[in-house]
Design goal:
Helix content is 10%, strand content 54%. It is mainly beta and 372 residues long. The chain has a 16-stranded antiparallel beta sheet that branches. This is DUF6268 domain-containing protein.
Length: 372
């Protein structure tokens, strides 16, 4: 997510340049240092730092992505009395995502980007119904995430910069008549303080607060963007993502690396509420019956990616790799103990995705002084 926000900086610079070339001359391809917007003050003439480096891919204004995995095994182990273990195969696991980023404010010393997104994940299992609480309740059901976020990039001077992002989303299997913010709302944030050492090297340290590792947590984050020569570079937001970049030419870029993705859904139990039991099989009256579960999904993807310019404003992204599932667990979100109810494991599997994204047209960038 942060990578998309960082790259939107190009879009803000390009739009500003198209409004008035005299008010925006940009020196780099992506996230260039802000150029003078007037000659009225020393601040207007100052060059400001930013997180990007030469050679990074084009900024993304609108993104449509579809991802699919083939058949793979699934197994679950009950963590409470009254449930059984179960295993089956998933015949489908697919994700559709649509994201858009809008430059709301673009000045040399401050850039504000607003993002909107919709994501949907679906599962199908063989031998339906499975007669298992978790699988039957996510079978062919849209696990959705609808989100809005705002990112602020604050260059301080020629070397130092800040980046902050806050995001609110609704995540789960909600429908329009079931939706309540208290049930499905989620919040995440991040803040980075960085240094721009040269046009080819920018790095920063900070924290991320969110669901990247399945449950809500705070963890350190390191941004490391570096271009070594005209072909090779690295882009990282560690520990969540590290990517090696190869620029074949200005219209074709290859990537290799890994990414950690976390998803957190509220799943409504359509059948009778789930009641935990004592060792003797009697209902555990000390715990409220569960009508919903919190599904925490964490996966590591080892990926190869290719981005190719189709038109001056339209790019294709093709990606393939291997998905290792770290967790696919259901938790009690009704009782105070937040106990794990079901521990599941999705077998590793290959995956592939296709993506189309819109970028500022080449002529618009050239008019603004941006080198592609």
């Amino acid at each position: 997510m942060s990578s998309s926000i960082l790259r939107v900086g190009l879009l803000t610079a390009a739009l500003a340049g198209s409004i008035g070339a005299a008010r925006g001359q940009v020196q780099e391809r992506v996230y260039p240092p802000a150029a003078p917007v007037g000659a009225d003050s020393a601040a207007d003439r100052q060059t400001f730092a930013n997180p990007s480096v030469l050679g990074m891919g084009p900024s993304k204004g609108l993104i449509v992505r579809y991802e699919r995995m083939p058949r793979f095994g699934v197994s679950s182990s009950a963590q409470v009395q009254g449930l059984s273990d179960f295993s089956t195969e998933a015949t489908k696991n697919a994700r559709l995502s649509i994201k858009g980023y809008i430059p709301a404010w673009n000045r040399p010393h401050l850039k504000v980007i607003v993002g909107l997104s919709y994501e949907r994940e679906e599962f199908k299992f063989e031998k339906l119904p499975t007669s298992y609480e978790l699988y039957d309740n996510i079978e062919n059901k849209g696990l959705k995430s609808t989100a809005a976020q705002i990112a602020i990039i604050r260059p301080v001077d020629e070397v130092h910069w800040y980046l902050a992002r806050v995001k609110g989303e609704l995540s789960g299997d909600y429908t329009s008549d079931q939706l309540t913010k208290s049930d499905y709302s989620r919040f995440s944030a991040e803040a980075i303080y960085g240094w721009k050492r040269s046009p080819n090297f920018s790095w920063g340290v900070g924290f991320q607060y969110g669901y990247t590792f399945g449950r809500l947590s705070i963890y350190p984050a390191v941004v490391y963007n570096r271009t070594f020569n005209r072909r090779w570079g690295i882009e990282a937001l560690a520990p969540a993502r590290i990517t090696l970049r190869y620029n074949a030419n200005e219209s074709s870029i290859f990537y290799a690396g890994y990414t950690v993705d976390g998803y957190n859904y509220i799943v409504k139990l359509n059948r009778a509420p789930l009641t935990r039991k004592n060792a003797d099989g009697s209902p555990d009256l000390s715990k409220a019956a569960l009508s919903t579960l919190e599904l925490r999904e964490t996966e590591v993807k080892f990926r190869l990616r290719w981005e190719r310019e189709l038109l001056s404003f339209l790019w294709l992204g093709a990606e393939a790799g291997y998905r290792y599932n770290y967790a696919f667990d259901a938790f009690d979100r009704t009782n105070a103990d937040r106990e794990k109810i079901i521990d599941s494991q999705l077998n590793g599997a290959p995956y592939a995705s296709l993506e189309l994204f819109i970028t500022p047209p080449r002529k618009l960038l050239e008019k603004s002084g941006v080198r592609r």
